[in-house]
Amino acid sequence: MRIELSDVNQEEDVENDYLLKKVKKAAQLRAAFLFQIVLFVNILEAITLFKSD
């Protein structure tokens, strides 16, 4: 059985696309997580400012 170079390239493209999607998803999750932390800190800050008045 002979493996064509184009077949290998196509497999690499599929693998690269899959990895790129995984990286994008991880970046989205990280951004959402960091946004939630910032939001939580802002809420805590607002509560402490409200209580100090």
In short:
The chain is mainly alpha-helical and 53 residues long.
Protein architecture, described:
With 53 residues, the chain is mostly helical. Helices cover 91% and strands 0% of the residues. The chain has one helix at residues 5-52. The longest helix has 48 residues, at 5-52. It is rod-shaped, with a radius of gyration of 23 Å. The termini are far apart. The mean pLDDT is 89.
- Structural class assignment: mainly alpha
- Give helix and strand order, one letter per element, not per position: H
Low-confidence regions: none
Query: Helix proportion of residues, in percent?
Result: over 70%
General form: rod-shaped
- Report the strand count: 0
Mean pLDDT: 89
> What Rg, in angstroms, do the CA atoms define?
23 Å
What is the percentage of strand-forming residues? under 5%
What distance separates the N and C termini?
Answer: 80 Å
- Figure out the total of helices: 1
